[in-house]
Amino acid sequence: MKALFIEGRRNGYNPAQCGDTMTVAQLMAYLEQFDEDTPVFLKHDNGYTYGNIDDYSFEEYDDEDEEGGEG
Fold first, then answer.
1. What does residue 52 show for φ and ψ, rounded to 5 degrees?
2. Per-residue model confidence as pLDDT tens digits over 40-53
3. 40 within 8 A of 3, measured Cβ to Cβ
4. For residues 38 and 3, is the Cβ–Cβ distance under 8 A?
5. Sheet harboring 4-7: ordered strands across?
6. How far is CA 9 from the centre of its chain?
7. Contact present, 51 and 64 (Cβ < 8 Å)
8. 54 near 40, Cβ under 8 Å?
């Protein structure tokens, strides 16, 4: 089975500490080189553990919510 792995890195304790990252457009363009049926997994700890990606794997983040939010 051919598969695509995304290396799960731990670069910081919040998104601002992680440096540059791909945009959605860049990710979509990158993925175009693969067959659309290629499964995608997360790879952690140099391949010691793996994870799947599904509809529940995504969460939107808005840093403005933290700065001016209620509560």
1. -95, 165
2. 999 999 999 999 99
3. yes
4. yes
5. 4-7, 40-44, 49-52
6. 9
7. no
8. no
Amino acid at 49: T
Q: Give the C-alpha separation, 22 to 15, whole Å.
A: 13
What's the pTM? 0.75
Q: Which amino acid is at 54?
A: D
Q: Please write the tens of the pLDDT for every residue from 12-30.
A: 999 899 999 999 999 999 9
H or E element in which residue 68 lies: helix 63-68
Neighbours of 13 (CB within 10 A): 8
Q: Rounded distance, CA 10 to CA 28, Å?
A: 22
